[in-house]
Design goal:
heterodimer, A: Helix Hairpins, elongated, B: mainly alpha, 2 strands
Chain lengths: 122, 504
């Protein structure tokens, strides 16, 4: 169910990016898509009632030096969180560039409407 | 020689961050440093030919850490990227004098090269995504570098479609991680070989095909390319058409399909269909263009179609279990066409930049009769045109011939016919370029046009010589065994990737 909602969010972003005529709204649509994917990554690693994946000395079995099953069964997966952090930083960079291109375009054309920004064709 | 693999990413990255902080007077130093960096990359790429190695970043062993993988396919692509970027960098030394903020341009250029080298070497799907974004974001900024009406419009279009492609790829990466529990390509490949494809993985594969198809500008996804490539400064057009669409699009897709997901019949047909559509649509649209660089951009779509067709034929033949020799032949044709195209298309874009700088226009109707006034540019353009059109002794002929032979051997006679037909289209469009740019009457306004000088000339001569020498790559057996065959073997024996990289 949650995955379906997440996919719905992705599709809303895609719809917004493809259909909208305003440059800023297109940018917003792309960002919604990015966040839907980030949310999806977080949900992959999520575990209801899980604990932080920090290994304490008490969670290592002293006899066999192996990690206890309790830790393995309750800790959330930390990797997707690391991926999402990276991906947020990347989308920040690309958002900054997109918005600055929008601002420069507005200064040149005096509009955000992509149907009026049509010098290139063919 | 044992080249440390992170150098391919670290050298351009470090120089890229040093350049913008140099003082204003340091423009000459910045140019020199940037050129040194690209030449250094060429040396590293040549030294690493014929090696196959895995480098573990930070000493973390493979499933825990990130790894860089050098094999035949990577070194082939590294050679193409470094040769083209060295030529384009040399060309921009003089060409970019007409723009302000040259050190920033050089910095973005090197960031893009670092990103591409990272994509080529990465052995980890998420790492591949990160490098892909580095290269893409730098290229969005470079397309809009002129900050005029057309550049900004093209950059925005490119950026929107490129970002959607990146999101698709990230979604695919997330699905792969969710289904296999690993991000390392070798481990994913092993997991998929063990369990087979499921619905999630198939969805991830289709997301990858759409995402990388957008990056490679294959035909249903090509809308951004004819705007973006002509709007960029000429050396950047050369980089984008020459190597970026291949490193980010075709290479990444081929790597994932052959080495990670494994070949299958539907994927083969999808690639063949995309390749044929791109070849035909790109070819016909190019003939009607009157803008010199726009014609070249459409022709890039058509030529990338050849590469994808070769790879797709390889996938199909491997998946149906037909003779492996034909599959290798098709893949050889595709990959050889890839390196050929990166050399001659970047040469063509450099000549278009030279013509544009000398005359101030790229409209072919306003040009003409430049053959006497710009002899070197004309010679370079003729060599590249003959090569791209597939005139016999030039390299483009050999790669197309190999593709035709592979298609005939596999009994796809109609595909062979389409390849030949699109070749004729290509010939027509480049005859048009020759006729309207270099031959005919000289318009009154172009009486005192002069040949470009200095580094621009040197870059064009370098690529012309390289273009003439490319045929040797397939005709001389020792070179073929050293450079092309390892690359083909990586793809044909795709399932062995996990054994070679991780020993699984």
């Amino acid at each position: 169910m949650l995955y379906a909602l997440c996919f719905l969010l992705f599709m809303i972003g895609l719809y917004c990016a493809v259909v909208k005529k305003n440059m800023v709204k297109i940018v917003v649509g792309i960002m919604i898509m990015e966040y839907a994917v980030n949310l999806f990554l977080i949900m992959l690693g999520y575990r209801a009632g899980g604990t932080a994946p920090i290994l304490h000395a008490s969670q290592v079995d002293p006899q066999t030096a192996s990690i206890t099953a309790h830790f393995l069964n309750t800790a959330v997966d930390p990797l997707p969180q690391a991926l999402v952090l990276t991906s947020i930083v990347i989308s920040l960079g690309s958002l900054a560039l997109m918005i600055s291109i929008c601002i420069r375009t507005y200064a040149k054309y005096g509009t955000f409407d992509i149907t009026e920004i049509r010098r290139l064709r063919g | 020689m044992n080249v440390p693999l992170p150098m391919f990413v670290a050298v351009p990255l470090v120089v890229a961050f040093v350049l913008p902080v140099l003082p204003k007077a340091g423009k000459a130093v910045a140019t020199l440093l940037a050129n040194l960096a690209t030449v250094c990359l060429v040396v590293l790429a040549v030294l690493s030919v014929g090696e196959a190695r895995v480098y573990e970043m930070g000493g973390w062993s493979i499933p825990l850490g990130i790894n860089l993988v050098l094999d035949g396919l990577s070194s082939l692509l590294l050679l193409a990227v470094s040769a083209v970027s060295a030529a384009a960098m040399l060309f921009s030394t003089r060409y970019m004098e007409q723009y302000t903020a040259k050190p920033k341009f050089l910095s973005l250029f090197l960031l893009m090269v670092a990103g591409m080298n990272g994509v080529i070497l990465s052995g980890d799907v998420f790492n591949l995504y990160v490098f892909l974004e580095i290269a893409s974001i730098a290229s969005y900024a470079l397309v809009g570098f002129g900050c005029e009406h057309e550049e900004l419009e093209a950059a925005f279009k490119y950026m929107v479609l490129g970002s959607i492609a990146s999101v698709f790829i990230l979604f695919g990466v997330a699905l792969v991680y969710g289904n296999t529990g690993s991000l390392n390509m070798a481990y994913i490949s092993r997991a998929i070989q063990g369990t087979g494809m499921n619905a999630g993985l198939s969805f991830a594969l289709s997301l990858f095909i759409v995402g990388f198809g957008l990056k490679a500008a294959l035909v249903p996804f090509h809308a951004w390319l004819p705007d973006a490539h002509p709007s960029a400064p000429a050396p950047i057009s050369a980089m984008l058409s020459g190597v970026l669409i291949k490193a980010l699009g075709v290479y990444a897709l081929a790597r994932l399909i052959f080495n990670v997901f494994g070949v299958s019949i539907p994927v083969g047909w999808v690639l063949i269909a995309l390749g044929l559509l791109s070849m035909v649509a790109g070819g016909f649209l190019a003939i009607g263009q009157w803008d010199f660089k726009r014609l070249l951009a459409y022709s890039s779509i058509s030529q990338v179609g050849y590469v994808v067709l070769g790879v797709g034929l390889g996938v199909l033949l491997l998946a149906t279990g037909a003779n492996v020799a034909w599959a290798s032949l098709a893949i050889l044709g595709g990959l050889f066409h890839l390196v050929n195209h990166s050399v001659y298309k970047s040469l063509l874009f450099l000549t278009s930049g030279s013509v544009e700088m000398a005359t101030g226009t790229r409209q072919m109707k306003d040009l003409g009769g430049l053959a006497d006034r710009m002899p070197v540019t004309r010679a370079a353009c003729t060599v590249a045109s003959a090569s791209i059109a597939g005139v016999p002794p030039f390299p483009g002929f050999w790669s197309k011939l190999i593709l035709v032979i592979a298609a005939v051997q596999a009994r796809f006679y109609w595909i062979a016919a389409v390849i030949v037909l699109v070749s004729v289209c290509t010939l027509i469009m480049y005859l048009k370029v020759q006729r309207y740019v270099f031959l005919g009457e000289v318009p009154e306004s172009l009486r005192d046009v002069r040949e470009s000088r200095g580094s621009m000339l040197a870059a064009m001569v370098f690529l012309t010589v390289l273009c003439l020498a490319m045929s040797l790559l397939v005709l001389v057996p020792s070179l073929r065994v050293a450079v092309l065959e390892p690359a083909v073997n990586v793809l044909v024996n795709g399932a062995d990737y996990s054994i070679q990289v991780a020993g699984l």
